[in-house]
Amino acid sequence: MKVGVLSDIHGNRVALDAVLADMPPVDRLVCAGDVVGYNPWHADCVDAMRGLGDGEDWPDTEVPTVMGNHDRAVAATTPFAFNGMAKAGVDHAREQLDEAQLDWLAALPDERRTCDDRVKLVHGHPDDPDHYTYPDEFGPDLLGEEDVLVMGHTHHQHHEVYDDGVVMNPGSVGQPRDGDHRAAYAILDLDTMTVEDRRVEYDTTEVIHAVEDAGLPREIGFRLTQGR
């Protein structure tokens, strides 16, 4: 079974379009959270993960997804230590999403098992959904009964293969922060227990203009050109 692994889309429809167009055939998609925030296409990205989107290459069934901190803040108005850019994105998402989209976000779990329970999805860390688990913290001790642990939150693409399984972060679709501006995702092969980290170019200028048109902080768009 091949699985397309997404995380941290953050309302960036242009990047999501590019990722889904670039993705080779897979048996399933999964998402490690933060569908909304920062960029201006929150509703489109939520509907894409709900299997209700209108993109040419978008899924036609709901994508197993866990709740990220931005998702939680938008749906449940729970506090988080947001900077100005992040808060602006949360406020914009609350204004844009309809009741059904907000209900979908609010119902997302912090943890989810999929692919016959072989894959466990969390956003930050198995024990703390808000913890930033960077690659130097990866280790087999993070694994439980699952074969593969998928995390997001850091926007840093990385994976490690251990005797006990795989620990991975596919990176961020909509706002990479690992020095590479290209949209990030990964392909997980559960038959061979291998991971292919993938990057794809997209039109960051289009996003910059959309951010400005939406009245969001300009830095949200410009930082995309630097992968930070």
UniProtKB/TrEMBL annotation:
Sample GO molecular function, one term: phosphatase activity
UniProt cross-references to Pfam families, sorted A to Z: Metallophos_2
EC class of the enzyme, as a word: hydrolase
Record-level GO cellular component terms: cytoplasm
Swiss-Prot/TrEMBL cofactor(s): a divalent metal cation
EC number: 3.1.4.-
Gene3D superfamilies: 3.60.21.10
Domain Calcineurin-like phosphoesterase: 1-192
UniProt keyword list: Hydrolase, Metal-binding
InterPro entries reported in the protein's UniProt record: Ap4A_hydrolase, Calcineurin-like_PHP_lpxH, Metallo-depent_PP-like, PdiEstase_YfcE_CS, Pesterase_MJ0912, Phosphodiesterase_MJ0936/Vps29
Keyword Cell division: no
Top-level division of the source organism's lineage: Archaea
Protein family: Belongs to the metallophosphoesterase superfamily. YfcE family.
Name the UniProt record assigns to this protein: Phosphoesterase
Source organism per UniProt: Haloarcula rubra
